[in-house]
Design brief:
The protein has about 500 residues and is α+β, with helices and mostly antiparallel strands. The protein has one domain: Up-down Bundle (Outer membrane efflux proteins (OEP)), CATH 1.20.1600.10. The chain is about 60% helix and about 15% strand. The strands form four sheets. Strands 4-7-9-10 form a four-stranded antiparallel beta sheet, with no helix packed on it. Strands 1-2 form a two-stranded antiparallel ribbon. The protein has a two-stranded antiparallel ribbon with strand order 3-8. It is elongated. It holds the Pfam family OEP.
Length: about 500
């Protein structure tokens, strides 16, 4: 007996940053945000510390927040709306199954013309009749081997499983929305870094040409500076293309083009304290596992539906018919009524039902195995996401140290180049290493926020309720309650 079906009515803040510098400037942190008035990507501005904090506060107050973007995805994402519509269609399986308890009523009517010609010796007679009739019949199932009862419970389990599938789709959409949001922030910062690097290399090329003009460096140094600038401009083009792609994905997931995005918000405060707790929560709460368990219920009830074909069937029918036989000579009206009970006892049907029953049992076994597969997948996803989160934390620490060290190295290389102890190529290489470490830091901070949402999704808790999104919640039970008891009507609850 299925045991999982239930009542159908029961329905750390991380701030990434981008970095910019001139030839004589150190690393300044600014909030990583996307600001695109008129649809263009603006460059981040280096401010003094007190001005930066004031600007960041003002900017966040007027910018789109991560939770605001996710709320828009929850309310209007097409993929999510498709799944909601699919669940509403699944709700209709319950009233369809309940129809087995209800009577069926059929009316019938007929009209015809009958012409009769009779020959007698020396004469003949012709008679034209206009027979017609109408009637009504009611059929009521009394016992169908519990087929209807099992069908209703299977339909209810399908609805419960559909709700969990919807919850899983909500998780996927919210995660994709978070990834799209952070990708725009990351690619904006990378583009700003690449643009700043171009400006730095332009200045470096100018200084190298000036030194070449007075004989301090050779033509080789100038060529190296030119090559480095050309590569940097190519990298800027790639970064701009990546940002455009991320903006398009954001528009697909959130439903609008980003204008001003505030800093990303980590979901780490919603996570269990340890990996073991995360695995335990995932195995107990993940909607994919719960949906698979409801799938087992559906399969087991389907076994009973098929087996019901081997049991006796008992029904009652009643009908009333009125027949008219009219002609120009006489009229006749016959009214008849009948009430009868029908008992059907299957004896042997060629082995078809026995085979269908065995197949249904194998399918139920398959669904039970699928639950184990899903549990393994959830556990693997939790472990993988948790590992990515821990690794991203370590990458942030390493990248911060690398940025600091590479800043010192670049400054030292420049000073040594002034006295002839370093070449122009050494300076250019040091500049590229610093740029790479800054990009790595921005990417690691993006990865940490994304990984926190991946863990929350892997344990089955990535939802509008958990994130406290300011958006009207979609209540799947509302539509079900509206249709489950309907006997007639083709209009949907929303009037279609």
């Amino acid at each position: 007996m299925p045991r999982f079906s239930r009542d159908l009515r029961a329905p750390s803040r991380i701030i990434p940053y981008a970095s910019h510098n001139r030839c004589d400037a150190g690393l300044h942190r600014v909030l990583l945000r996307y600001d695109a008035p008129s649809g263009k990507v603006s460059r981040a501005t280096l401010l003094a510390t007190f001005l930066m904090m004031t600007t960041a506060t003002f900017s966040q107050a007027h910018a789109e927040t991560m939770n605001g973007a996710l709320a828009k995805a929850y309310a209007g994402n097409p993929t999510l709306n498709v799944q909601r519509a699919s669940l509403r269609a699944t709700d209709e399986n319950v009233p369809q199954a309940l129809a087995g308890y209800r009577p069926t009523v059929n009316a019938s009517a007929s009209a015809s013309v009958a012409r009769t010609q009779t020959r007698y010796p020396g004469s003949r007679a012709t008679e034209t009749l206009y027979p017609s009739s109408f009637g009504i019949q009611i059929d009521q199932n009394i016992f169908d081997g519990n087929r209807t009862r099992s069908s209703v419970r299977a339909a209810e389990a399908q609805v419960l499983g559909g709700r969990e599938q919807l919850r899983n789709t909500e998780q996927t959409v919210l995660l994709d929305g978070a990834v799209a949001y952070m990708n725009v922030l990351r690619d904006t910062a990378v583009l700003n870094l690449q643009r700043n690097n171009v400006e730095v290399l332009v200045e470096q090329l100018r200084q190298t040409e000036d030194r070449f003009g007075v004989g301090e460096v050779t033509r080789t140094d100038v060529a190296q500076a030119e090559a480095s600038l050309a590569n940097s401009r190519a990298d800027e083009t790639v970064a701009e293309a990546n940002l455009r792609t991320s903006i398009a994905t954001y528009n697909q997931m959130i439903g609008e083009t980003p204008r001003k995005l505030g800093p990303g918000t980590s979901a780490e405060r919603h996570l269990p304290k340890t990996l073991e707790d995360a695995i335990r929560v995932g195995l107990a709460e993940h909607p994919a596992i719960i949906a698979a368990l409801h799938g087992v219920d559906v399969a087991e009830f389907q076994v009973k539906v098929v087996e019901s074909e081997l049991y006796p069937q008992l029904g009652v029918s009643a009908g009333v018919t009125r027949e008219f036989d009219s002609s120009y000579t006489r009229d006749r009206v016959v009214t008849s009524g009948v009430v009868q009970a029908q008992l059907r006892v299957p004896i042997y049907e060629g082995g078809l039902v026995y085979s269908k029953t065995r197949a249904a049992k194998e399918q139920a076994g398959q669904q039970r195995l699928q639950v184990d597969v899903t549990r393994d997948q959830v556990q693997q996803a939790v472990v993988s996401a948790w590992a990515n989160l821990e690794a991203s934390k370590q990458r942030i620490s390493a990248a911060q140290s690398a940025v600091k060290a590479n800043e010192i190295a670049l400054a030292g290389t420049r000073e040594e180049a002034k006295v002839g102890q370093r070449t122009t190529l050494d300076v250019l290489n040091a500049q590229q290493v610093l740029l790479s470490s800054r990009v790595s830091l921005v990417t690691a901070q993006r990865d940490r926020i994304v990984a926190s949402y991946e863990v929350l999704q892997a344990i089955g808790r990535l939802s509008a309720e958990m994130l406290s999104l300011k958006v009207a919640r979609y209540d799947a039970s509302t539509h079900f309650d509206q249709v489950k008891g309907k006997w007639v009507g083709t209009s949907t609850p929303d009037g279609r």
